[in-house]
Amino acid sequence: MRWALANAGQIWSLAVNHVVIAVPPIILSLLLSVPLGWWAHRHPAVRRVLLAGSGFLYALPSLPLFVILPVLLGTRILDPVNVVVALTLYGIALMVRTAAEAFDAVDGTVRESAVAVGHSPTQRFWRVDLPLAGPPLLAGLRVVSASTLSLVSVGALIGVQSLGYFFTDGYTRSFVTEIAVGIIGTVLLAVVFDVLLVLGGRVLLPWVRATDTRTGASG
Amino acid sequence: MSFVLAALAWIADPAHWPGPGGIGTRLTQHLWYSVLAVLLAGVIALPLGLWIGHTGRGRGVAIGISGALRALPSLGLLTFLAVALGVGIDGALLPSTIVLAVLAVPPILAGAYAGVEAIDPDVVDGARAVGMSERQIVTGVEMPLAAPMILGGFRSATLQVIATATIAAYLGLGGLGRLILDGLPVRDYSRMLAGAVLVTVLALLVDGLLTLLQRRLTTAGVRASIGAD
After folding, report:
1. Which strand (E) or helix (H) includes residue B207?
2. pLDDT of the residue at B56
């Protein structure tokens, strides 16, 4: 505790760095997974390819990916962009299946009624399919958020600054307190993000007050 | 692309395979730690998951724990246990195996209880009606019916462990991660990429094998009922 207070400045700046690296992949995974999931939902062939692809992506271990990406992207190995791209890939891998299943789960009769009252396919997507797929999408995004925040720290092994620095530094100094501060910091960030996502969901999806308790069970 | 070719050439070089730091040893270590961790996690999580699914008790707790474990950073957990257990630079097998097992618990647990829960309650009641004991119901009805999901849980657990075992190399544990971490300070990109490529190929190979196993171990009746859905 005393250590944490004495180093509050460093903890804060590393936490800010951590957030700065974690936020783009979380947002990008959502923005990319929804259209991909929609596409997969409409075309079984696309679905097979996308699900196989996301399984493949998810099977890639993170540290090697951080090392391979600079070669593919032409970035330097210490560039945080590598970590952002890698985490976005993981986010999509986690999220595409959820998105496809979320659209599958929309009740067929509701969809037919929307068509019957004269919705065009575009209107149907924005007014019917997307809102109704909202809760499972949110559940998927919460998983992506937690796993992204936890994976950011692996970047510390290749020198990308985040709360993960406390793990490598604490290990070389055999100093448990410092490692514990890093763990608690990461978990706190994950909790804050989760609360923000849930609150955001309440605002954006006001019609799902009676939340389905089963959504937390996936994975 | 020349980097990739250099990495492949590094792997193909027979001089890099034998010896205590060679690819052969690293590969064997990586597999050994992974198998050990998944077995340890399976011994804990599978009975627990079956129990939760069978009784319907403790579901909330299981979901909570799984969520919390997902948010825990594996590198932090790894270094914390290594320092807390007072393990030196060379004896990191115990904390690493524990951490890897901890990471493997949630997917196995989730696969087991979700698989059992998804079974039609009428089937379980039917088994009870013909006089099967609770133990027989679990082993003879629920486990075979839930097999695809149980094995799916083991599959994602194994992948996660293989991926994280790469990080465990940081603690002085062997495995393929060493190639990456040894190459980093001396800027030996061929070695780092070689390590990265080897881990990735290993993960994909094991994933493919487990997928085949998942199909083979699913009984014909269960396969048919999945197909009918």
Report:
1. helix B189-217
2. 84
8 Å CB contact of B200 and A219: no
Which has the closest alpha carbon to B87: B172, B16, B155, B212?
Answer: B172
- Smallest CA–CA distance from A165 into chain B, residue: B76
* B55 vs A53: CA distance, rounded Å: 37
The string of pLDDT tens digits covering residues B25-63 is 888 888 888 999 999 999 999 999 999 988 888 888 887
- Name the amino acid, one letter, at B196: A
Q: Please provide residue A46's backbone torsions phi and psi, each rounded to the nearest 5 degrees.
A: -60, -40
> Do residue B79 and residue A179 have CB atoms under 8 angstroms apart?
yes
A167/B192 touch (CB, cutoff 8 Å), yes or no:
no
- Interface predicted TM-score (ipTM) of this complex, two decimals: 0.79
Q: What are phi and psi of B21, to 5 degrees?
A: -105, 10
Give the mean pLDDT of A171-190: 88
Given a contact cutoff of 8 angstroms between Cβ atoms, the answer to whether A179 and A170 are in contact is yes
**Which B residues in the span 25-84 are in contact with A, Cβ-Cβ below 8 Å?**
59, 63, 67-68, 70-80, 82-84
Question: Which amino acid is it at B84?
Answer: A
Give the type of residue at A116. A
What pLDDT was estimated at residue A214? 47
Tell me, yes or no, if the pTM score tops 0.90: no
pLDDT averaged over chain B? 83
| Residue B91 buriedness (CB in 10 A; 0-12 / 13-18 / 19+) | middle
- B107 Cβ under 8 Å from any chain A Cβ: yes
Nearest to B73 among A63, A153, A170 (CB): A153
Contact B207 A55 (CB under 8 A): yes
CB contact under 8 A, A216 and B67: yes
Angular region, A212: left φ>0, alpha ψ -120 to 50, beta rest: beta
List pLDDT tens digits, range B73-123: 888 888 888 888 766 555 567 777 888 888 899 899 989 988 998 888 898
Q: Which amino acid is at A77?
A: I
Residue whose pair of structure tokens reads 């250590």 in the numeric block: A3
